[in-house]
Every structure is written in C-alpha cells, then in structure tokens.
Amino acid sequence: MVKAVKRIFICHKCGLEYPHWQGQCTNCQAWNTITEEIASRSVLFSCYDKNTVVSTKKVQNLTSIYLKTLPRFSTGFKEFDRVLGGGVVPGSVILLGGSPGAGKSTLLLQTLCKITTQLKMKTLYVSGEESLQQVAIRAHRLKLLPNTELNILPETNIEQICLTALEEKPRLMVIDSIQVMHMTDVPSLPGSISQVREAAACLTRFAKNENVAVIMVGHVTKDGSLAGPKVLEHCVDCSLMLNGDSDSRFGILRSHKNRFGAVNELGIFAMTEQGLREVNNPSAIFLRKREEMTAGSSVMVVWEGTRPLLLEIQALVDHSMINQPRRRIAVGLPQNRLEILLAVLHRHGGLPMADQDVFVNVVGGVKVSETSADLALMLAMVSSLYDRPLPRDLVVFGEVGLAGEIRPVQSGQERITEAAKHGFRYAILPQANVPKKAPENMQIFGVKKLTDALAILQKMSI
C-alpha cells in the first residue's frame, strides 16, 4: 500500500509549522501567511554528492584553532566592498534582495565581469530566470563584451549546479534567483517554502565545504521584505538590500546582516545607460543645490555604518482645517519619533502644534533610524511654522531627550569634519560634541537644552 503524502502548513513569514491551516499565525501575528507544503526529508548533507553522507569532521578545542586573516577579494566596486565589510570572504553566502528593476542582476553581472577581467578569477553566473541570449544582450548593452570571459550556466536544478561548480571550481558563484531553483528530492513547486529552504541550505553547505563564495538573488514581497522562509536570512552570512525604483537615478545598497563587517552600512550607486556606477561622494547627491533658501529645510549629519553622511530633511507645518484627526506623516523617519519630538517641542519649546498638520521627508529616499536627526528635524519644523528659512550653510545634529536636553551622539568629530569639507560655516550640535579645536572658517554652537538652540536661531534672525 502506498504511503500517504504528509502535508504540513508553514508560515512563510516566520517559518512556524502547523498541523492544519489557520488564518493567523500565533507566533508573528500575521494574517494569511500560512500555506500548505509537502513534508520532505532534509537533503542538506547529500545535496551535491550522495556518496559523502558520513561526516569526517573532528572536534577541536577552541584554543587550538588557527586564527588567520580572512583572504577577502574585491568586487571591483568600492561601495560594494564597503557594504560587505571590505570585500568578499571565500566560502561566504550572501543574499541580495531588492524590488524588480532595482538593478540586482545588473550589479552582479558587472561585478563578475570586473572580477574575471581585473583579478583573473574564475566566476560562474547561474541564470534561472533569463536565457543565455538575454544575458548576452544585457552585457552588450552595458558594454561588457568582448573583454570578459565570464562563464554562464542556464540551470535551475541545485544538484546539477553544484556538480557543475565542482568541475568549474569558481571563486564566486551567483544564483539568480533562489526563488526559481528546485531540488529533485523535494516534492514542491519552485518558490515554495520547502524548495527555498532546502535549496539555500544545500548551497550554504556547498559554499562552506568547497570554499566558494555564493551570492543568491532574492525577491521581495509587497511590503519590501525578502520573500521566502525566515530561515533563508538566518542561514546566510550577509543579507543586503538594494533599494531603488526603475525610474530612480540612484540605488542604495544597505547591509542588514553581516558576519564579517559593520551592519547598516550604506553604498550609493548611480543608474546610467552603462549600468550602475558607484558614487564616491554620496553626501553631495543628497544636498539639493538651490539658489533660494526655503523654509522648513535643514541639513543634518547622520552616521551610516562607518562614515558620516550629509542629508537634507524637509518639514511642512500647515494649519489644519479639521479638529480631528491630526495628520502626522513621516517619510524616511520613524513615525513614533515624530510624535515624541512634537510633544517635546510643545512642552519644553513653548510651540504648540496641536492644530497643525506636520509632514516630514528625508530627501533622497534614505531611511534614517538613529536619533542624531532629532535636533535637525525640530529646527526644520520651527522654520516651517514661522515661514523663515534657516541659513543655507548651517548644519545641525544631536539627540533630543524627553526633558528637552540635547544629548551627545557618537563620532561627533567625524561629522563636523564632513560638514566642513562641504563648505558649511555654522553648526549647532550638543555641547558634549564640541571639539577642542574647530575647523577653519566654521563657527560651532554647543547647546545643552532645546531652548538654547531656539535662542541661537533668534540671534540668526530666524
């Protein structure tokens, strides 16, 4: 008698399994995320060589392990290397996600061509979504031909990919994309939770055993998160997101997880007809050059990964025509942080905004999560409220506490140096971040309370 196929139900957001279907996941509280899957045995240890199922690894003492510098190699892009923590680590597994049209395939195709041409390393591009002719057309459009010797494999079967990689022995292999890959022993459709989980686990084991760096391209859902099981992000060494629409001029590469470098590192790329081009001075592209000074705009210095970044923040404060509800919209900043700063501005600054609609936007589409943007946001709202522009050569940063105090932030000296490099002459920052020696042609105002910052604006005729 044929054994019945066992079916399970898995939440594709958190990965929790259920014996039957239900509408809401009890773990992550998400609705309509539980799908039916066919249970299968794990093929983690026998995915690319079915004869080597017996482990030959031995237990070692921690003190006897030889520590050596990881031999990274460059991708050919300084911005890409920065996000990775200094380059690609052999044997690492990298997950690159992004919305359709963001430039994931273009960036990886350019990267492999640079590594093959400049470093003379062997690479392998596995195309599961495009044919060989389509990849060649894009390479011709990017003017990557005929100077490159990149190897391309049109395959979606993981076992065949690993066997081919064993023969070719590449230093870096790109899987485009993990959602279309499948394994023979997993009785599910490509893109399902079981297929993505087993395929990613097999590629991870292959990368560690053969010391081959693997970059997997991942799709995103409607809310911008990576599609597939949550275990996909846990098993990789580095998780990257490339943000940028098809009609945008710039693409932002951000690191969300990195075992070999800093997290939340940022890389800026310009989208041109010949592919992605790295931006060496990202602060300049986010500072909008304007002849007239406008109210409600201020420049702040945020810390992204390992470097300072100058950003422009805009605020629009407008009288509301209705009593309830009040509109508080923040783009690029946490919504709850905006509500807190409005309360602090009312309580300790004496500026009630209960009858005002407030709209906040960070120019350039950058998402700011650190609290060093508090003071710049508050001064931008004050400027918009009174319809008086701030000085164009003024830069502001600092954290604002609930008691109205201005708290210091990390790397204050580097932030000031970055602002002076771009020609800013005035700076309002926490008193604890005031350097002993200010840069030339820059006047620094150290403040301890919110009222001190508002008093400085009055002296500047704001």
Automatic annotation (TrEMBL):
Keyword DNA repair assigned: yes
Pfam families: AAA_25, ChlI, Zn_ribbon_LapB
Signal peptide (from-to): none
Residues forming coiled coils: none
Domain RecA family profile: 69-220
Superkingdom, natural source: Bacteria
Residue numbers binding ATP: G98, S99, P100, G101, A102, G103, K104, S105
CDD domains: RadA_SMS_N
Motif (RadA KNRFG motif): 257-261
Free-text function comment from the UniProt entry: DNA-dependent ATPase involved in processing of recombination intermediates, plays a role in repairing DNA breaks. Stimulates the branch migration of RecA-mediated strand transfer reactions, allowing the 3' invading strand to extend heteroduplex DNA faster. Binds ssDNA in the presence of ADP but not other nucleotides, has ATPase activity that is stimulated by ssDNA and various branched DNA structures, but inhibited by SSB. Does not have RecA's homology-searching function.
NCBIfam families according to UniProt: sms
Family designation: Belongs to the RecA family. RadA subfamily.
Name assigned to this protein: DNA repair protein RadA
Organism of provenance: Candidatus Palibaumannia cicadellinicola
Gene name linked to the record: radA
